[in-house]
Design goal:
This protein has 3 helices and 5 strands, in the order H-H-H-E-E-E-E-E. With 130 residues, it is an alpha+beta fold. The chain folds into 2 domains: 57 residues; 45 residues, no CATH class. The strands form 2 sheets. The protein has a 3-stranded mixed beta sheet, with no helix packed on it. Strands 3-4 form a two-stranded antiparallel ribbon. Helix 2 runs antiparallel to helix 3. It is extended. The chain starts with a helix and ends with a strand. The model has no long low-confidence stretch (mean pLDDT 76).
Length: 130
């Protein structure tokens, strides 16, 4: 019985250590844009509901929530599109496409003065070359 238990433990360890997993970086622009639009709409509806509290008769102004949700969806969509387009121009399937570049802040330490400086960077061209 002890040999059987040892064999099961050994096979379990070998199978766990021998199993390989593949990790992929997730880059789904549509999902990110849709998620930003959804959250924008939810926040806009909440802001519209909060503004109803300042109205004379809040029950007569339920449209504030609809207007807030609409503005939130539009703002979330713009934010999602701006966030997913990472470069000014990118090449996809042999076609040149233009987009809104993402401006990324970065902290850089100056080698001479040892001070931290904020630098801004963006990608100009992105593409997959086979």
């Amino acid at each position: 019985m002890k040999q059987f238990n040892k064999m099961v433990v050994l096979l379990t360890i070998v199978s766990l250590l021998g199993a390989t997993t593949v990790a992929f970086a997730e880059d789904n622009a549509f999902r990110d844009t849709f998620q930003s639009a959804f959250y924008g709409g939810a926040v806009g509806a909440l802001v519209g509901a909060a503004l109803m509290a300042f109205a004379y008769k809040p029950a007569d102004h339920l449209d504030y929530m609809g207007y807030g949700a609409a503005v939130g969806v539009l703002a979330g969509t713009v934010y999602g599109v701006a966030k997913t387009a990472r470069s000014l121009a990118y090449i996809e399937n042999g076609k040149l496409k233009l987009g809104m570049p993402t401006i990324i802040p970065d902290l850089v330490e100056s080698p001479t003065s040892r001070q931290m400086n904020v630098s801004w960077r963006t990608d100009i061209l992105r593409g997959t070359f086979n």
